[in-house]
Design goal:
The chain has a domain at about 1-105. It is mainly alpha-helical. The chain has helices at about 1-5, 10-25, 30-45, 45-50, 55-70, 75-85, 90-100; strands spanning about 115-120, 125-135.
């Protein structure tokens, strides 16, 4: 849930593409789901752009121009070109994103130590809310055997 709901969408889509290519052996050129993820990354760079101030914008511009060999000064267009990946350039751009760009971005909307407010409606229509302090995350791992083992 943490990865699916709270991670920066572009980074999460890059992870899904990598999983599709490496984990399942699919190719972007042949898999419609991977092509859709690439198109969404190209079209939706706004979430990344909203995190950039003047200093980060200049830094991203320089890094992306060097990586892409493009002299455009529009960071939005550079990001769109960067996220327009194929089977030839995906691994290099994935590594570049996490090595050079991700350190300057908030990859998760809620960090460890933040307070999360959860709201819900009661049966009678009133709103109830509770503030939860985020102490950490965890991941379940399935057992290899389906039999119940008493301990």
């Amino acid at each position: 849930m943490y990865e699916d709901q709270l991670k920066l969408k572009n980074a999460h889509r890059l992870d899904q593409i990598k999983d599709g290519r490496d984990g399942r052996g699919n190719l972007i050129a042949k898999d419609l789901d991977l092509q859709r993820l690439v198109r969404e990354n190209v079209a939706q760079v706004r979430e990344v752009m909203l995190q950039l101030d003047a200093i980060k914008t200049a830094d991203f511009r320089a890094k992306l121009q060097k990586e892409l060999g493009n002299t455009s000064s529009d960071v939005g267009a550079l990001l769109a070109a960067f996220f327009d990946t194929d089977d030839v350039n995906f691994d290099r751009r994935y590594a570049f994103f996490y090595r050079e760009l991700a350190a300057s971005l908030e990859l998760y909307r809620i960090r460890i130590g933040d307070t999360l407010t959860i709201k819900a409606f009661t049966r009678s229509g009133y709103v109830q809310s509770v503030n939860l302090h985020v102490y950490g995350t965890f991941q379940f791992q399935a057992w290899k055997s389906r039999r119940w083992r008493a301990r």
